Amino acid sequence: MKFSLPAALVAVFLLAGLPAYAEDIKLGADFGPEGWGYRIDYPVDWTKVEPSNYAVVFSGRQGTAAYHTTVSIQNVRTPETKDKIAAVMGELARLEGRIRDETTGLEVLTRNPFVYEKRGIKVTGAQMVAEFAKRGDAFRQWIVILPRTKAPILHVWIFTGPLEDFPQALPTAKAMLDSFEIRGE
Questions:
Q1: pLDDT of 8 higher than 60
Q2: What's the predicted TM-score (pTM) here?
């Protein structure tokens, strides 16, 4: 996967000073149901829940340090359009608005393009990193949105964790994102 320069700077910002990096993380489990349009690897000791159609949430098992961190992916249908970036930015604005409505103290730390290039597929999406409080607890969230080239679908990948746990769980989330592959284009 290739990253644009701003995305690379975000990755450096997010990973600065961490003891482990994404390439050091062993995932081991695979998720990619037929018809969902992607596959992703996740840690074998994490749980997987499918709360609704075309949505999945991964998290550490109860009692582990990763229990309160999640990586979720949802396929979001958009209106038919040739302007994929507009669809991506519209969804990012919708998510930011929902966070603003459901939390307090929202601070968007960065908002940049995200370039996915793998298996002959290249798409430009967007990413955002934000911090907010919910029920008195501080969280950080990294959102990546990628459009499909031939369908009105967005893949919305979100890593969320308590502010104090985010740096330790970030290498695992980054490894999961690095393993993400768009399928069926």
A1: no
A2: 0.87
